[in-house]
Design a protein that fits this description.
Number of strands of chain B: 5
Radius of gyration of chain A: 24 Å
Helix content of chain A: 40-55%
CATH topology of the domain at 7-236 in chain A: Aldehyde Ferredoxin Oxidoreductase,  A, domain 1
Number of strands of chain A: 17
CATH class of chain B: Alpha Beta
CATH architecture of chain B: Roll
CATH class of the domain at 7-236 in chain A: Alpha Beta
Shape of chain B: globular
Oligomer: heterodimer
CATH topology of chain B: Ubiquitin-like (UB roll)
Order of helices and strands of chain B: EEHEEE
CATH superfamily of the domain at 7-236 in chain A: Aldehyde ferredoxin oxidoreductase, N-terminal domain
């Protein structure tokens, strides 16, 4: 056991409440400013309305913050919850946690889902959710020990700075010889020195004898965590079985879990091979369909993509079981062992890299013009160790590189660094600077929205161009899909509650490749059903990958193949078996609708959440520049001539760029109208009174927010 | 012969992924196939030959993200 000097600031001994039908009906409240620990009750009405996971988080967060509070206000909370099915070991993808907070990037509600053992261990220790408010003096570690029935706030000076070493040391110290019983949440120095900090959630990989981790990456929740002066939260638990959630119908649970688990074992090797390769198969596929972001989303393919895709990483991944929760048969959390960085603190030392996934490859590879898997691995490793979100890092540096190449910024601004696309050494140097909060990295680490302001106000760059090419919406950096040729995916990103992250709606293939939704109404229907169903996973402690990344062989013969209804029915059965509340597939959508609309109104409470905030940079909608237009000239010329009946004879490219822009921007506004109507919102994007009443979220505070915004 | 999923089909000279899918009832809905373990996307269907004895798996590709 690692020896460390610990000072106990507060201890709460408690009697653990066993889980009943997926719930403990309690939450844990830690106020770091007051140094208090308390246990709250989850009332039946709250449980019924918010279900769990993100729903519980939002309820606790709403209660904690006022509309005028900023992200660094002590009232801001970091809320973490799994969900009623979270921690079920036999059903694939059942170990997720959802984290929410007020984001330092967007100023509003952010949520981020993550694997690792923490959420289930928290619940089995007696708490459906954890809320951390206030601020500590520093070096604070919160320990939730479900075995000894004790919560502690500790002060531990001298802990390692980076998450890679910190998780290892804390796992060793608190495990009492059983490391698999520990899960650690930590951030890192990068989280403290930027606005794009992530949280690392650990689990112990018993086969490899090492601590592994996954990230709650989006929106800077790691930055909030670091700002609170907290270094880590540790959960301790041991025994897990199908009975630990005390399901309402154990036999029904076993039956449905067996069906889904076996199907994945049979079909995944034939389909995407996620258990062997994770999501790296997407790299060549996206490249082939002109959807892989390259050079800051200017283009969708590159000859070098083959160097950073499936063929590269199948040679690099360490073979073995890689489930981020016990018993998951998707098991996609792959990593690379004995990687030796050539920069930074770990230069020349062997490390284990947890990743990369598709997003990191595209964001920190192709989007930067970097087609070298080893550089991607090194950026991946340091982002995790520093506590930085690889998506915001990748999309942010891509923006910087395009600004540099277009002369909007130069070496006088970057501290002498050449930040042209493809400059691997300086991309890495920028990551190190971000983490340290030094040099140009101190600016880049603020995220694209703030960089745009600094580049325009202090460096004299053209603000209109910055707006067009800065790939953020609502203040959050885009995740790594090209949306220019898919109006539905433009909506998927632009209308997402927290900003452009694909976990709410990923419709590119259904729209652009399969053309399943040619009309505005069909797109609006998709932008209702898919975000709602995807939200449901986050309420229940589930990963969405088993739903539609491995598909039944007869799925194509069903009425709605895009929804994979066989699996949706299994999920309804799964929910019923655990909670004892009978549910149909339609009920799952209604559950999500309540939470989804509550989150939209939460945005409104924080000063956002209206039509004006559902905007996109034009790079996400169409070609900004002449070069982009000419790279897809046939497509765009045809669109102008055939779809819009415009005579383009004799017109130069700049004229055609402008003509197309006018139509595409109008098209996006029409889509907003259709989606708002389908969701039961006003033309300004606010849920109507009738909608909130139908969904049972007409709490007095909710109605007051609506009334304040003119909705009565 | 070639194997498509669990089904055996006759092979013919000049067979490509595109002509193979055209012979299948629902071939048009597939955007990606796995040909002897290698992923092939629709933009390459016309120019990708299917050799005799090949194993082809049809990938639904409705997910991602």
């Amino acid at each position: 056991m690692t020896t460390m000097k610990t000072t106990t600031l507060k201890t709460l001994a408690y009697q653990r409440r066993d889980v009943d039908k997926g719930y403990t009906n309690q939450y844990l409240d830690v106020d770091l400013s007051a140094g208090t620990i308390s246990v709250g009750t989850v009332e039946e009405k709250i449980k019924k309305t918010f279900i769990g996971g993100k729903g519980f988080d939002l309820w606790l967060l709403w209660d904690a913050v006022k509309g005028e509070n900023k992200w660094d206000d002590p009232r801001n909370a970091v809320c973490i919850s799994s969900g009623p099915m979270g921690g079920t070991p036999a059903y694939p993808g059942s170990g997720k946690s959802i984290v929410t907070s007020i984001s330092p990037l967007t100023g509003s509600v952010i949520d981020s889902n993550v694997g690792g053992y923490f959420g289930p261990y928290l619940k089995f220790s007696g708490f459906d959710a954890l809320r951390i408010t206030g601020k500590a003096q520093g070096d604070t570690v919160v320990v939730i020990d479900g075995i000894e029935e004790k919560i502690e706030i500790l002060q531990i000076p001298g802990l390692p700075e980076d998450a890679y070493a910190l998780s290892d040391v804390l796992t060793d110290h608190f495990s009492q010889g059983k490391k698999v019983g520990i899960s650690v949440i930590s951030a890192g120095p990068g989280a403290a020195n930027t606005r794009i900090g992530c949280l690392n959630f650990s689990w112990y990989d018993n086969a490899r004898k090492r601590v592994r981790y996954k990230q709650a990456g989006r929106g800077g929740i790691g930055t909030v965590f670091a700002d609170k002066g907290i270094r880590a939260v540790v959960a301790r638990w041991e025994q897990v079985s199908l009975k630990t959630n005390n399901p309402a119908d154990l036999e029904a649970l076993k039956a449905v879990a067996r069906c889904h688990s076996r199907e994945i074992v049979e079909l995944d090797p034939k389909q995407n091979e996620m258990a062997r390769l994770g999501t790296v198969h997407l790299v060549p596929i996206m490249n082939d369909f002109d959807l892989l972001p390259t050079h800051n989303f200017q283009y969708g393919s590159h000859p070098g993509a083959s160097l950073i895709g499936r063929e590269a990483f199948e040679k690099l991944f360490d073979p073995g079981y890689d489930g981020c929760w016990k018993g998951c048969t998707v098991a996609c959390a792959h990593g690379v062992k004995d990687f030796v960085p050539y920069t930074g603190k770990y230069k020349g030392k062997k490390v284990f890299v947890d990743g990369p996934e598709y997003e990191t490859i595209a964001g920190c590879g192709s989007n930067l013009g970097i087609f070298d898997p080893f550089t991607i691995l090194e950026i991946n490793f340091y982002c995790d160790a520093y506590g930085l979100d690889t998506i915001s890092v990748g999309t942010g540096i891509a923006f910087v590189m395009e600004c540099f190449e277009r002369g909007l910024i130069n070496t006088n601004h970057t501290g002498g660094m050449d930040l042209s696309f493809g400059n691997r050494v300086n991309a890495l140097e920028l990551v190190h600077q971000m983490a340290a909060g030094k040099g140009f990295g101190a600016i880049a680490g603020q995220g694209i929205r703030r960089m745009k302001g600094i580049f325009a106000d202090q460096f004299g760059a053209d603000p209109a161009m910055l707006q067009d090419i800065g790939m953020e919406s609502k203040g959050l950096e885009f995740s790594e899909y090209m949306t220019k040729e898919s109006l539905a995916q433009q909506g998927g990103y632009g209308l997402a509650l927290k900003g452009p992250q694909h976990d709410e709606a990923w419709l590119i293939f259904l729209d652009m490749v399969h053309n399943f939704m040619p009309t505005f109404e069909q797109k609006a229907e998709a932008l209702h059903w898919f975000p709602m169903f995807r939200t449901w996973f986050g309420l229940c402690g589930l990963c969405k990958l088993p739903w539609n990344d491995i598909v039944p062989e007869d799925n194509k013969d069903t009425l709605e193949p895009a929804k994979v209804m066989k699996h949706v029915n299994w999920y309804a059965d799964y929910y019923t078996a655990v909670t004892g509340n009978p549910a149909t597939p339609e009920d799952l959508i209604t559950m999500s609708e309540a939470v989804y609309n509550f989150q939209r109104i939460f945005n409104l409470k924080m000063g956002y959440g209206t039509r004006d905030h559902d905007t996109l940079p034009y790079r996400a909608v169409g070609p900004v520049t002449v070069e982009e237009y000419e790279s897809r000239q046939d497509r765009y010329d045809t669109e102008l001539k055939e779809k819009y009946s415009i005579d383009i004879t004799g017109k130069d490219t700049a004229w055609k760029v402008a003509a197309l822009r006018k139509r595409r921007e109008a098209q996006y506004e029409t889509l907003k109208d259709a989606v708002y109507e389908r969701r039961g919102w006003t033309a300004d994007g606010i849920p109507t009174v009738a909608t909130v009443k139908r969904l049972g979220i007409d709490f007095p505070e909710v109605m007051a927010v609506l009334a304040k915004n003119g909705v009565k | 012969m070639i194997t498509v999923g669990d089904q055996e089909l006759p092979w013919q000279e000049g067979l490509t992924v595109a002509t193979l899918l055209a012979r299948l009832k629902d071939g048009h809905i597939y955007a990606v196939v796995k040909l002897d373990g290698r992923l092939v996307s629709r933009p390459h269907f016309n120019i990708t030959p299917v050799p005799d004895g090949a194993r082809v798996t049809l990938i639904p590709m409705i997910a991602g993200g």
